[in-house]
Automatic annotation (TrEMBL):
Protein name per UniProt: Sulfotransferase
One Pfam match: Sulfotransfer_3
Membrane-spanning residues: none
Tree of life domain: Bacteria
UniProt feature coiled coil, ranges: none
Record-linked SUPFAM superfamilies: P-loop containing nucleoside triphosphate hydrolases
Gene3D superfamilies linked to this entry: P-loop containing nucleotide triphosphate hydrolases
Length: 418
């Protein structure tokens, strides 16, 4: 049997102001088709399944496809990756619906008390989430589960779940193409991870925006109630809990910046949830988010405009803050919300964790304290190697201070410097 030729790779130098970095990506044919008809047909062919169940996700999908075609300026590799991403999410929906139909008990799975950590991207949500996840009393989602939430046939066997290996290989391939991303967010298959990956299956996340410049899609998602996407996310959490045979009494801890723009949908689907709101200097959150989006998207486009990205991210974060402030006053009962500042966790993480435990209603036991103490110095959670600035993206500290003056004043957020 003839051996399959290894794919050819190209190295491309990407400049950002006075700095440059090299990305390495496969050479692929031009013109990958990610039209709705093409990807639906491909997902059905791949799985041998046809029925998606209720499909309100199609509205999100159509706006996304138009935005990718009209705004993202995708190169050949970017088009291939977009096609693969869309097909994979549709295939997962088909497989999930097949499981729901064959095992209706999945959607009767009870879920324990839930706490969601919510804040702008890069505001310390990951650190708080990973600290709490070290307490063995909490349930949480792992990286491989949010990327591949639907069990495959081999998942039900005796050996390790093949989805873990699949996640490891995907992360290794991504970091080989652009190693800089290792300094922005650690990718570990079995580490705690945010639930945003489950919302990918409804095409309703800013993770998609990080992968390509699609501002029309992003604004649409921001201003459209995504209750259907969150209801589907709950189904997937039930699927994961059913597969793992979780104790239905154990509490859950989740986190995602996505909920800044979807607090209405979150509370409609999880009305009893407790919400920890994280607050950090917007100079840092905006600049770091720009850097994160830039470093992910440069693989798929050769026409990146850092100033256009900066203007969009500043607008997006400002609107997220405004929207969550508008909604939390009426949607979240006072006893279900707590405010935590990033600077306070850095200054005294034990004190802030005690506040969070008191809020959740759990004892900050000696065992929990020891578990969290072991993880408190986790370099990844602080993203110590990540370097970025507002000026790289055409922004200034004065502009950000003016945009967020009311927010900064309300929560007494200390300035971290330029």
């Amino acid at each position: 049997m003839a051996e399959t030729a290894a794919p050819a790779f190209e190295e491309v130098q990407i400049r950002l102001g006075d700095t440059a970095q090299t990305v390495r990506r496969p050479v692929v044919p031009e013109g990958a088709d990610f039209s709705e008809a093409a990807i639906v047909a491909a997902a059905r062919k791949q799985t041998g399944l046809h029925f998606f169940g209720d499909d309100p996700f199609r509205a999100n999908l159509r706006v996304l496809i138009r935005s990718m075609e009209d705004e993202a300026k995708l190169n050949a590799f970017g088009r291939v990756m977009a096609r693969q991403f869309l097909i994979a999410r549709l295939a997962d929906r088909l497989r999930a619906q097949d499981l729901f139909d064959r095992h209706p008990e999945i959607l009767e799975t009870k879920l324990g008390p839930m706490t969601f950590i919510v804040g702008a991207a890069r505001s310390g949500t990951t650190r708080a989430h990973r600290l709490l996840s070290n307490d063995p009393r909490f349930l949480y989602l792992r990286d491989w589960e949010i990327n591949f939430p639907v069990p495959v046939a081999a998942s039900f066997g005796e050996g390790p779940d093949p989805r873990i290996t699949r996640a490891r290989k995907a992360h290794a391939a991504f970091l080989a193409m652009n190693p800089e991303n290792a300094n922005i967010h650690t990718l570990e298959a079995e580490a705690p991870e945010e639930e945003i990956g489950l919302l990918n299956m409804s095409f309703a996340t800013q993770m998609i925006e990080a992968q390509r410049f699609v501002p029309t899609y992003g604004r649409y998602c921001m201003e459209t109630n995504q209750q259907a996407a969150y209801a589907y996310m709950k189904k997937l959490i039930q699927l994961i809990a059913w597969f793992r045979k979780d104790d239905p009494q154990r509490p859950w801890v989740f986190k995602s910046p996505q909920h800044m723009q979807d607090l209405d949908a979150l509370m409609q689907v999880f009305p009893e949830a407790k919400i920890v709101f994280m607050h950090r200097d917007p100079r840092k959150t905006v600049a770091s988010t720009c850097s994160m989006f830039w470093n992910i998207s440069i693989l798929g486009s050769d026409e990146n405009d850092p100033e256009a990205l900066g203007a969009y991210i500043a607008e997006k974060v400002q609107r997220q803050v405004e929207k969550v402030e508008e909604e939390r006053a009426t949607l979240v009962p006072p006893g279900q919300q707590l405010d935590v500042r990033y600077a306070d966790i850095n200054a005294d993480w034990e004190r802030e964790m005690q506040r969070i435990y008191d809020f959740i209603g759990l004892d900050f036991s000696a065992e929990a304290h020891a578990a969290l103490n072991a993880a408190s110095g986790d370099k990844e959670a602080r993203h110590g190697g990540h370097r970025y600035s507002l000026e790289q993206f055409g922004l200034s500290a004065d502009d950000i201070d003016q945009r967020f003056a009311g927010y900064i004043g309300k929560y007494g957020i200390p300035q971290e410097g330029k």
